[in-house]
Amino acid sequence: MNTTINWTGAASFRATTGSGHDIQLDGPPDHGGENQGARPMEMMLVGLGGCTSFDVMSILQKSRQNVTDCRAEVTAERADTVPSVFTKIHIHFHVTGQDLNEKRVARAIQLSAEQYCSASIMLEKAGVEITHDYTMYEG
């Protein structure tokens, strides 16, 4: 796995993933950026949210749950001092489907957190407190 980061001016960068996808990164105006892309720390949250969402949906599909929508909201707290690392991250899943089994939804989230999500496990080993919860909807 690899990624190349190219400076494109001021505090702006273009990341190219090993699979050939481009992502614009930029800093906030008060740090020389022009707000033309995601912040690098936001991208870490995107990676975490994407990783656990892939796991949860895969587990739910394998357990024959009729999911029609799944959204993960990821919120984080950072240290007040430099480096301002993440100290706490919370992931709230909104799972919509027909006749969902609550135990299976809870178990899918637990399995992702404890066994499958590499991003989550890596961040927890670095000392980040990660919590999860969910809301289920019929539809």
From TrEMBL:
Source species, domain of life: Bacteria
Region (Disordered): 17-37
The organism of origin for this protein: Vreelandella halophila
Gene3D superfamilies reported in the protein's UniProt record: 3.30.300.20
PANTHER family registered for this protein in UniProt: PROTEIN YHFA
SUPFAM superfamilies with a match to the protein in the record: OsmC-like
Protein name: OsmC family protein
